[in-house]
Amino acid sequence: MAKDKSSTVQIQTYADHHVITQPNPLRKVLRRVAEKDLDDPVARAEKALAGLSGEFKNWMAAETDRLAAAHAAVLKDGFTKATREELFRAAHDIKGDAATFGFPSAGATAESLCRIIEHAPDLDKVPSDLIAHHINAIKAIVHEHTKLDTASTASELSRQLRGVADEYLAQVNRDRPEHLEAILAPSIVPAE
User: Fold this and answer.
1) What distance in Å separates the CA atoms of residue 162 and residue 164, rounded to the nearest whole number?
2) pLDDT (tens digit per residue) in 28-74
3) What per-residue confidence (pLDDT) applies to 191?
4) Cα 87 from Cα 113, distance rounded (Å)
């Protein structure tokens, strides 16, 4: 049982200092719980994620469909402010969701696509194949995720695309040092 402390400020004086102890009003509302009743929020969250994990592939498929639709709009209308933003948002959402949903290589590939969109000085001059290869890789990684030999292939594909994207960005930004620093910074490509 906790000791009853006064509800006033307590001051202990020593030769070279003072210790001031203020009352803690939260002690009055604190409830003690038996060891066996302790809640583990991490375990609870993991259990909830496990229950939802069957939906992850469908959610990623919906995200890749959104990315493909954004790319189709770019191919149809070119890079307008709206098409650029939608392509970036779709890739960025995949980048953020992929690792949680069990698709880290798709996330790394989406990150590479985001870097192209962010750092290319003129998106209309970016080779259309470079963007298409990123989108097709993300779609393939998500679609083929259940096959046993795809993890290493997906990781290698994402690493290769990042390398090509970085080479392209370094070349087109050679006169823009503020972008080169971000482009040349190392990044970690997660393993599957």
Assistant:
1) 6
2) 787 777 776 677 788 888 887 777 767 777 889 999 999 999 999 99
3) 47
4) 9
Question: Looking at per-residue confidence, does 46 or 119 come out higher?
Answer: 119
Q: At what angle do helices 104-119 and 41-77 cross, to 10 degrees?
A: 50
Position 88 pLDDT exceeds 90: yes
Q: Amino acid identity, residue 7?
A: S
Q: Are 60 and 151 in contact (CB under 8 A)?
A: no
Identify which of 34, 48, 60 has the alpha carbon closest to the alpha carbon of residue 140.
60
Nearest to 162 by CA among 91, 103, 111, 104: 111
How distant, in Å, are the alpha carbons of 100, 150, 162, 179 from that of 52?
11, 23, 30, 39
Give the rounded distance of the alpha carbon of 126 from its chain centre.
Answer: 25
3-state SS track over the chain: CCCCCCCCCEEEECCCCEEEECCCHHHHCCCCCCHHHCCCHHHHHHHHHHHHHHHHHHHHHHHHHHHHHHHHHHHHHCCCHHHHHHHHHHHHHHHHHCCCCCCHHHHHHHHHHHHHHHHCCCHHHCCHHHHHHHHHHHHHHHHCCCCCCHHHHHHHHHHHHHHHHHHHHHHHCCCCHHHHHHHHCCCCCCCC
Q: Are 87 and 66 in contact (CB under 8 A)?
A: no
